[in-house]
Each structure stands twice: as C-alpha cells, then as structure tokens.
Design goal:
Blueprint lengths: L1 E2 L13 H10 L4 E4 L7 H8 L5 E3 L14 H12 L7 E7 L6 H17 L4 E6 L2 H10 L6 E3 L6 H9 L2 E5 L9 H9 L5 E3 L21 H11 L4 H15 L6
Parallel strand pairs: 1-2, 2-3, 4-5, 5-6, 6-7, 7-8
Length: 256
Amino acid sequence: MIDSHCHLNFSAFNSDRKQVLQTCTERGVSSLVIPGTQANSWDNLISLCKRSTRLNFALGLHPYFLDDYCESHLQQLDELLTLQKGHVVAVGEIGLDFSLSIDSDLQEQVFAAQICLAEQHDLPIIVHHRRSHNALIRILKEKCFGNGGIIHAFSGSFQEAQTYIELGFKLGVGGIITYPRAKKTRAVIAKVPLTSLVLETDAPDMPINNKQGQRNSPIYLPIILEALQALRCESAEVVKQACWQNTLDILANIKR
C-alpha cells in the first residue's frame, strides 16, 4: 500500500518516527508521500525523505500558512523543483481553503502561480480544498492544467468528482469513509471509477473512526483500505492493487 498523503515530518512524530515506519512495514504500507506546506520546512522535508527509500516528497505552499507568504517563496519553489527534478513527486500541498481568514484573492493568486510552476516542471499537483470546489475547478480550467494530480481528502459531490476526474485527477480516499455518518462521501467513493482512487491518511490529522482525539498515523492505512473495499463491488484484492497502481500512475516519480 502507498499512503499518498501523510505529514510524517510534523513534530507529532518526533518521538517515534522510526517506530511508526517499522509498524508501517509490518502492516504492508511500503511507501509514503509527504507533501510540503511552507517554505521554511522544505529543506528539512527533503533531508528526511532522502534518508529513506520509502519516503517521497512534494513541495508546495499550503493556504493555511500564507500569513508569512512573500513572493520570494515562489522563486525558491521554482529553484527547488529544478534542483530536485526526478525526486520531487508533485507540487503540493497547494489549494484553496475558504474557511480560513486568509484573503481569498491571495489564496487564488498563490494557487494559480503554483499551477504554472507545476506545468513548467511537468509535475502533477496535490490539492487541498475546503469550501472551495467551484473556485478550484474554475482556476484549473482557466489554466488548462493538464498534468492532473490528487484531490486530497475528497469530500465533494458526485458531479464534482466527475469534473475532477475529467480534468485528470485522482481522488484521495482517507479516514472520512470509516465514519458511517459520512454517507455522502461514502456514496460518491462507492460510485466513481476505481481507476480514480488513491489511499491516504493525512496523518497526524483526520483520525479514523473510533480514534477521535488521537494522533492519526500511516499505520492505520489498512483500516482505510478495508473500509474502501467494503464500499466497492470489486474484490478486495482488485481494489488494493488498483489503489497502488493509480498512485504510481499519477505520481510517476515515487521511489519503487
């Protein structure tokens, strides 16, 4: 299994990161993708991932951290994408979060600029969304972005899912589907093409059902897979293999 979205570099894992990776191995989680979130953490993220053949990194400016944004961050990102060509798997985590107090125009400006960088460096993108599907889809269409990517923690409508899929994106399937009350998202994930789904935990955030209030971890990815297998009409092994291949298809630079 591949965890396509996990923040293993966050301080929540400082005390037991090595043990978490060992438990991942025991549970069949063989690769992890760690998205970047802010410029001042990119170097440490790259260093962490280069110490393990199982860790992969993306680089991006997350809307949550734009309070300290300056234009030089985009230049720094451009330079790192060039320097890390063949190693970086995507531009991300980028996107729009309209639940934040951060100016929406600034969010859209930075998101659009990072789409352009992804296009220039021939990379997919990993997209954060919250109350922002319409704006995200509008910008992706305006930019004619053709490299696709992953819509992280997808929780939109079936129509929105179809639109993203038509634009070349996979949908990130995380802990939300382990909650019986998440009926809308579970119904959409059960219905979309299997070729459009990838697994993720978003650890240490987005805990699975019955783990509320606890640190989320990539060791729980098999539980998310089991929940997905229960929703789908295909056999469990077909679902597992498809999620693996879908991730490799969209993030071509993943270490193998």
